[in-house]
Specification:
The chain is α+β, with helices and mostly antiparallel strands. It contains eight helices and four strands, in the order αααααβααβββα. It has a four-stranded mixed β-sheet with strand order 2-1-3-4, with helices on one face. The N and C termini lie far apart (38 Å).
Length: 164
């Protein structure tokens, strides 16, 4: 059984088998399973691939290939809260660099990183498709338009309060 290889991995992987039990062992469910794992753990630990491959009767290489093909999946730990900052031209000229700097100061991480407690991941994106609202920051899918470096800390605190 593959579980012997998982026993020494992070504690949060323990629930993987119960998540996999929700699915019929059918390779057609690979993407759905990976999506559920991504939603549950905020990334796909490589050690999970063994369980998924075994459950679906697929080669490990196929599970890995799918997990690395789609941008929606991450092999690096992500925070519980995802902060995306638009760096497109319209947002950039309206102050995105100052917002990024302020968030990096607040969170003590660089863009593209996750806080050590896995609470926040800070990422920059090329465009969020709402240029008229720029500069634009998205926190867990909630859009915050006309953002400034002075308003970002309050938006972050408000979001934390709303999600508690």
């Amino acid at each position: 059984m593959v579980t012997k290889y998982i026993s020494s991995v992070e504690d949060d992987i323990v629930g993987v088998e119960s998540l996999l039990e929700r699915y019929t062992p059918n390779p057609e469910f690979l993407i759905a399973i990976l999506q559920d794992l991504q939603a549950e753990f905020h990334y796909l630990p490589k050690q999970m691939f063994l369980l998924v491959a075994e459950k679906l009767g697929l080669p490990l290489s196929q599970v890995y290939r799918v997990a690395t093909f789609y941008n929606a999946f991450s092999l690096e730990p992500k925070g519980k809260h995802l902060i995306s900052i638009c760096t497109g031209t319209a947002c950039h000229v309206r102050g995105t660099p100052r917002i990024v700097e302020r968030l990096q100061d607040i969170l003590k991480i660089e863009a593209g990183q996750t806080t050590p407690d896995r609470k926040f991941t800070l990422q920059t994106v090329n465009c969020l498709g709402a240029c008229a609202l720029g500069p634009l920051v998205v926190i867990d899918g909630k859009y915050h338009g006309r953002m400034t470096s002075a308003k970002i800390e309050k938006a972050l605190k408000n979001h934390e309060q709303e999600t508690q």
